[in-house]
Structures are given as C-alpha cells and as structure tokens.
Specification:
The complex is a heterodimer of chains A (306) and B (298). By secondary structure, chain A is mainly alpha-helical. Chain A has helices at residues 2-28, 34-39, 45-54, 61-73, 87-122, 127-141, 144-158, 174-200, 203-211, 215-252, 258-267, 271-299. In chain A, helix 1 (2-28) packs antiparallel against helix 12 (271-299) and helix 5 (87-122) runs antiparallel to helix 6. Chain B is mainly α. Chain B has helices at 2-6, 19-31, 33-50, 52-55, 88-124, 126-140, 144-155, 159-186, 189-197, 201-237, 250-256, 266-297. In chain B, helix 5 runs parallel beside helix 8 (159-186) and helix 5 packs parallel to helix 12. Chain B is elongated, with a radius of gyration of 22 Å. Classes of the chains: A mainly alpha (306), B mainly alpha (298).
Chain lengths: 306, 298
C-alpha cells in the first residue's frame, strides 16, 4: 500500500507540471495584456512601457516561465493586477463557499439519485423505471444557469420565498444546490440502476433469496455493497465536475465562490488571478481522483495494490 | 425481444458497409417510444435551423417600429418580444441555426482531430503515442468547462474562435476512446490477415479498423452534440460567445435577457426551453442508438 501510494503520487508529477505549463501558455496568448487594460484609453506609450516594466511583462518569455514555476511551486500564485491582494488569499476566501455548494449539491444528488436508481433496478421497465429515466434525462439536458434563473423568477421575484442571491449556511443554499445537482443526480441514478441490475442477477442474490432473506436485507446488505465501488467512482468524478459546474450557478446567484471569481478574472483580464484559479481547479480535480483511487482498497478488500 | 432470437447471430463481426445494418439500427431506434421522440426532436431542430427564414413569422433582426420595447407574449407574438421589440419566437428559430452550426462544427472537427490522433497513436504506438497521450492526460486533468472558459478567453470572442475553443475540449476524450478501441481491434485475426495479404496501414485503418470502432463513436458523438450545445450556451451566457448581437445563439439570447429578469421573464424562458428541448432530443437519440447498437453486437 505505501508503495502504491508513492507510485500514484509520482505519476501525478508530470500531470501537475503539464497543468502549470498549460496555464502559463494560456495566459500568454490572451489578447491585450493587463498593462493595456490598466493604462486604459489614455493611449500613452510611455505609461504603457512603465507599467509593463513594473509588471515584469517585458522580460523574455522563458525567464517569465522560470520565475513563474519557481514561485508557484512554492505556493505563491502572485498578486492580482487589480486589487493587489495575493491570489492565494483571494482564492482562499472563495474556496470555502464553493466547496460548501458542491457538497450540498452532492448530498442532494446522492440522497435522491441512489434510491431512485435502486428503485428502477428493482422494478425494471415499470412506471418507476420510466419516471426515473425521464428525470435523469432531463437532469443531463437542462442548462443549469437557466434553471437557476427560472427558480429565481418563481421563488424570489414572484413569491419572495427564497433569497434571490448571496451566500450563507441557510436557505441561501437551497436554490443553488438544486440548480447544480441535475447532472450528477442523473449520472448517479443511471449508474446505480445499471450496476444494481447486474448485481441482482448474480448467483449470490438468488442464494440469498432462496435462504428466505428479506428483500430489504438482500438489496442493501448484499447487492448494494457490491455495487458501491462503481457508484463511488462516478460520485467522485462528479464531485470534481460539480466544482466547475458551480461556477455557472455562482454567477446566476451572485454567490461568492471560485467560479464567480473566475468569471470576474476573465472579464477584468486579471491574468494572475485567472492563472491561479485554473491551477487550483486542476489540482483539486487531480486530488479528488487520487483520493478516489486510494479509497478503493478500503472499500473493497479484494483490491490489492502492488 | 422476441425478434432478437430470429436474428442471425453474426452481424457485426465482419466489417461491412451494409446499408441493411443501418436500416436495422434505425428500425430498432424507432421501435422504442423514447427513440421516436428523440428522432422527432432532432429532426425538428434541424428543420428549424435549415428552413428558419420560411418558418419564422417575423424578421429576427427587425423590431416592431411602433413598439420598441419588451412586450408580453400575445397572439401576435406568442413568445413575446425583446428589448428592441423583436419577436422572440423568430429569434429562437434563427437561434437554432447558430447554436446547431456551432455545435455541429465543433463536434465534427473535434471528432476528426480525435479520431486521427487516436488512430495513429493506437495503431503505431511508440514515442508519438507516449507524447500525444501525455497531452491528452493534461487536457483531461482540467474540468471541461474551465478549459473551455480559459480557451475562449484566450482566443477572444467570435463564432469561429468559439468553435476552436470547443473543438479543443472535445478531441482528447475522442482520441482516448478511439485509441483504446484500436488497441483491442489491432490484434484481431482479420486485421492480421489483412496485413498478411499485404494491405498497407492506411488501407487497414480505413477499411478494417475504422468501421469496427464506428459503433461506440456514433453513440459518443450523438451524446457529444448534446453536451456541446450546453457548453456553447454556458460560454455565451458568460459573455464569451459571439460578440455580434445580431447572430444570436440561444445562449447569447439568455445572456441578453439577464438585465430584464424582472421586467421581461419570458426573454429568459424561451431560449432556455429551446436549449433544453434540443439537448434532450440529442440525448434521447444517443440513448436509443446505444440500446439499438448494443443489441446488434450481442
């Protein structure tokens, strides 16, 4: 296990290197550098040159790259061109709300998706099965930002039941989580249905039935336990996608998370902020996948790593 | 299910370009009710896109001169009008053109690039494979939406740049899928036989490998179109789509509607509904195709 852990972490190194490089390249090809943006309409070449020099933008690209790698690998993502705040602080403030939003959407998807999937596996081709299929198809097809806007119109503008925007550990979370959970809910429902169908046709389930076990015990203690691993994989991947999907919801609900920060960075051409956010998102993504891989042997003792 | 047993067992083993296979798949798709709905929606959307000028009741660019502001849905304008007095129904119909154009062009170029890279890496292997697959890994280390936003921001606004950005998000997954399929087909006997006869690599790939990986690709692509319509809408919604307000895709219409959320909620409702229906249709079709092709390969 320790050796597996080590090799899995070592495998991550080229990926992380690639992430940093791609983020760096992307930021250099952005049209109109931040200096132009800061100097604005004054069209003053002298001012432009001064700002460029101050920002170290006139250095050769390779030098910039080396400086960038050296500082980012030490955990320093630089300062925002606009607010002058350190990027790590800005992202740090937005990090919590996004995680809360993603987790609450995850909770919603799991608590609806898995029962729904089991239900449609147990009563295959019944009305339940068709309803859950329809729900999951709509879930993957609905544009999250549109759903968010529609909910705002109905529940905040017309009825004033829920707050239209903002963040908080209360009813501020309801609409954003519902808007966000559609895709994950759909994926979990489908996955649960197909793995459960597989498991319910296995010999051990027949044996359990033959022994006269109650069906609830068979479903939860036997079949679901074996179906859990693929569901966990899908769930983990979805969590990573929820983090990025959250950005659309955050924009709609003016929710102070990383997604809104990203859109703000794009609109104000805040290079360093954008670069930092891209790196953090990608690292989170890679980190979640790593954790899922490491959880496998804990969940299923049959899996052993070399 | 009863027809299944009467089918010949060997259908999909030999690479054939049999039009009967296409017919059979179509018939299977049309046998499931959801498949029929999917086909109808996809065809309907395509018809809207192609014949938009004939179908749309008004000019999508010209507002009602007597009433240059938002108007509630009414008999004359069933979906209402927008802030420039333009008919939203007509704009939504023309929006199908833009949205589908962007989605189909990005999906097909992403597909072409992915298939090409997947074929050469899977077939030849070696250092080229190693390098290209590392690049695929790096692309896939980013959440799709983040990379699309970064690319769209880097490339600037405009339909063509949007297509490039979306293409670049599509190809890695295609390349990986094709590569894995090629790896499993490469060692089959008929490919070795073809090689023994003296067929060259290009011919083997075109005639023997490509037809055999077509099945997963068709399903993947249909579902991919659904996804790319959503991605395009998301980017346009964030203001990273086309800068030209006249050629409005559905996502762009949604973006325009944001300031009128309270004054004119219908401006946001109908374009989003159009996205939902179109994406739903492509997803249904993809699902039905998967079921149909799955049975065939059994």
């Amino acid at each position: 296990m320790p050796r597996y852990l080590l090799s899995r972490v070592v495998q991550l190194i080229p990926t992380i290197f690639g992430i940093y490089t791609l983020a760096f390249i992307l930021m250099r090809v952005l049209p109109g550098d931040p200096a132009t943006f800061l100097v604005g309409f004054r069209d003053d070449p002298q001012a432009l040159a001064d700002v460029r020099r101050a920002m170290d933008l006139d250095a050769p690209v390779l030098n910039q790259y080396v400086t960038f790698l050296r500082s980012t690998l030490q955990g320093d993502l630089g300062r925002s061109y606009l607010t002058k705040q350190p990027i790590t602080v800005m992202i740090g403030q937005a990090f919590g709300p996004t995680i809360v939003l993603a987790l609450s959407a995850m909770l919603l998807s799991v608590s609806i998706g898995i029962p729904l999937g089991i239900l449609s596996a147990l009563y295959k081709d019944s009305i339940w099965d068709n309803i859950s299929r329809l729900i999951s198809l709509i879930g993957v097809s609905i544009p999250v930002f549109w759903l968010g806007v529609q909910m705002q119109i109905v529940f905040s503008v017309q009825h004033r039941w829920l707050p239209i925007s903002g963040a908080g550990f209360d009813n501020h979370l309801i609409m954003p989580s519902i808007a966000l959970c559609g895709g994950t809910l759909a994926l979990l429902t489908r996955m649960t249905r197909s793995v459960m169908l597989d498991q319910l046709n296995q010999d051990y389930v027949r044996t359990a039935k033959g022994k006269g076990l109650r069906s609830r015990v068979i479903v939860w203690r036997h079949a679901f336990r074996n179906a859990f691993l693929p569901i966990l994989t899908v769930g983990g991947n979805s969590l990573a996608n929820l983090l990025s999907g959250a950005l659309l919801v955050e924009v709609v609900f003016s929710y102070p998370g990383m997604g809104r920060l990203l859109v703000q960075a794009v609109n104000t051409r805040d290079y360093t902020l954008l670069q930092g956010l891209i790196i953090v998102f990608a690292l989170l993504y890679a980190g979640i996948n790593l954790v899922i891989d490491l959880i496998y042997p804990l969940v299923d003792p049959r899996i052993q790593y070399h | 299910m009863t027809q299944k047993s009467s089918q010949p067992i060997v259908t999909n083993l030999a690479p054939t370009r049999d039009s009967r296979a296409v017919n059979k798949t179509l018939r299977r798709v049309l046998r499931s009710p959801l498949g029929v709905v999917g086909v109808c929606i996809v065809l309907g959307t395509l018809l809207c896109a192609v014949f938009a000028p004939a179908i749309a009741p008004y000019d999508p660019l010209k507002g009602d001169i007597t009433n240059l502001y938002v108007k509630q849905p009414s008999g004359a304008h069933p979906f209402g009008t927008d802030d420039a007095g333009r008919d939203i129904l007509s704009r939504a119909i023309f929006g199908a053109r833009i949205s589908l154009k962007i989605a189909l062009l990005s999906e097909s170029s992403g597909l072409a690039l992915g298939v090409f890279i997947g074929l050469i890496t899977g077939y030849f292997g070696g250092w080229l494979d190693t390098i290209l697959m590392r690049i695929v890994d790096i692309f896939m280390a980013f959440p799709l939406l983040i990379i699309a936003i970064a690319l769209a921001a880097a490339l600037g606004t405009g339909d063509d740049k949007l297509i490039v950005a979306l293409t670049l998000t599509i190809w890695p997954a295609v390349a990986r899928l094709v590569r894995s399929q090629v790896l499993s087909v490469r060692e089959t006997e008929y490919v070795s036989a073809a090689r023994l006869i003296g067929a060259n690599s290009i011919r083997i790939m075109r005639r023997h490998i490509l037809p055999n990986i077509l099945t997963p690709l068709i399903v993947f692509t249909t579902l991919g179109v659904a996804n790319v319509i959503l991605q395009e809408a998301a980017l346009s919604f964030l203001g990273l789509g086309s800068a030209d307000r006249n050629s409005a895709s559905w996502g762009r219409m949604l973006n325009d509607s944001r300031q009128f959320l309270i004054a004119a909620p219908w401006m946001a409702f109908y374009p989003g509904l159009a996205i939902l229906i179109a994406v739903f249709g492509f997803n249904l079709l993809g699902d039905a195709l998967r079921d149909a092709l799955d049975i065939q390969s059994e």
